[in-house]
Amino acid sequence: MGGSALARLAAITLAVAGTANASTINWGSITAPDTKGLGNSFSYDDYGHFSDRYNFTLTNDANSFGGLVERDPFFSLLDIDLTSVSLFQGGTLIGTDWSPDAFAFANLGAGSYSFFVNGRVGLEVGLPYGHVGYKGSITFTPTAVPEPNTLALAGFGLLALAFAMRRRFSN
To answer: CA 20 to 30 Å from 159, out of 93, 127, 145, 151?
Structure first.
């Protein structure tokens, strides 16, 4: 391959490796149980890597789980590849899941979070029609809190155990 052909190929590669159109969505306050939708659509001008950001504040302790599906029409000139999802509380990484089709984050405390969907939109051999994108959801469930009856039963069990131990040592 000649020098000018290599230079053209390098220029095309750099142009294609740009940054796609990333979005920031603010969900506001979330109280578990709740479910939020995830999604974005990309066109020919949006090829490159993207990192969509979803900001929210949890008002109670919760676990979360969800999943994403790539929307990639057959024979399309565009291609999408979802690479990971990440969750941050403030500037601290809570976790990254490398399989965005099914993800989970457990034991989340009340506070402010940012959820990121990361991927790449590229060009491939195909017909010049349609958009690519992703759709999905994330569900927040409250963490388990013992019911008062359970706590009372545990308390009575401890009292009975203490009484039995006291009786045993007094004999």
So the answer is: 145
Tell me what the pLDDT averaged over the chain comes to: 83
pLDDT, average across residues 3-11: 41
Residue 108 has what pLDDT?
A: 96
Q: What is the DSSP letter of 98?
A: S
Write the pLDDT tens digit of every residue in 13-39.
334 445 566 799 999 999 999 999 999
Strand-pair category, 132-142 with 111-123: unpaired
CATH of the domain at 91: 2.60.120.380
Whether residue 154 lies inside any domain: the answer is no
In a domain, 109, yes or no: yes
Q: Which of 22, 37, 32, 28 shows the shortest CA–CA distance to 112?
A: 28
Omega within 30 of 0 (cis) for the link into 33: yes
Q: How many domains does the chain have?
A: 1
Q: Which residues contact 155 (CB under 8 A, 6 or more apart)?
A: none
Please tell me the predicted confidence (pLDDT) of residue 8: 43
Residue 7 C-beta-side C-alpha neighbours within 13 Å:
3
Q: What is the extent of the structural domain holding 106?
A: 19-145
Q: Any idea what DSSP says for residue 110?
A: S
Taking the C-alpha atoms of residue 105 and residue 94, their distance in angstroms, rounded to an integer, is 8
